Amino acid sequence: xxxxxxxxKSPFERVAFDSxxxxxxxxxxxxxxxxxxxxxxxxxxxxxxxxxxxxDKSVYVLGPDLAARxxxxxxxxxxxxxxxxxxxxxxxxxxxxxxxx
Amino acid sequence: xxxxxxLFVNRKAPYGTVYALESLExxxxxxxxxxxxxxxxxxxxxxxxxxxxxxxxxxxxNFSPTYRALGDYDITKLYVSTESLAERxxxxxxxxxxxxxxxxxxxxxxxxxxxxxxxxxxxxxxxQEVILSF
Lengths: 101, 134
Hints:
The structure holds two protein chains of two kinds. Chain A is α/β, with parallel strands linked by helices. Chain A contains four helices and five strands, in the order βαβαβαβαβ. Chain B has a single domain, classed as DsrEFH-like (Hypothetical Protein Ychn, Chain: A). Chain B contains four helices and seven strands, in the order βαβαβαβββαβ. At the A-B interface, α3 of A face loops of B.
């Protein structure tokens, strides 16, 4: 039973992203949207945690939210950039969805 | 009307919440009252002035070009936290080139962004008379 975890808070401001990573299971998918997309940037003090999650989970980031914040092209390797159609696919292809508000 | 040292502290990323835009609105209003205005970009606030922002995909107005106009309103001191940039994997090269024309120096174009560490930021804050936080 794969779950899609959706995070929308910056990991530098709230603990929601940390909590998501702590509760996600192997085989789950994690999608960063809105302010959470800053967590996808390479070389930050948070990037190590995202990299660790990639060991057994797939990690995605919403491209339009990256672009809005001028962070297009700064996403770390291994994070898949998706558009809104990709967002829909993720919700459809996972059994359940959990939003970490 | 007396002139005071005003500081606007920006600590939130743009677009996810309305804080950044609201701060900018109040900053522009304050310019009309001819106060000595400084801006601080700390924590996620540094994302407000990244270059290349393109918000078409999220259907929101890209208000980052407005920061370029601040110099014309005599708002020329934008203090950016070096620690906040580093923690986020960013450098000053990831920020917009914000400048102003110095009327006291033959209108020479000068940078508005002042990179400071926490200690220097604290010293600048200690000089303020009115602090508004966003």
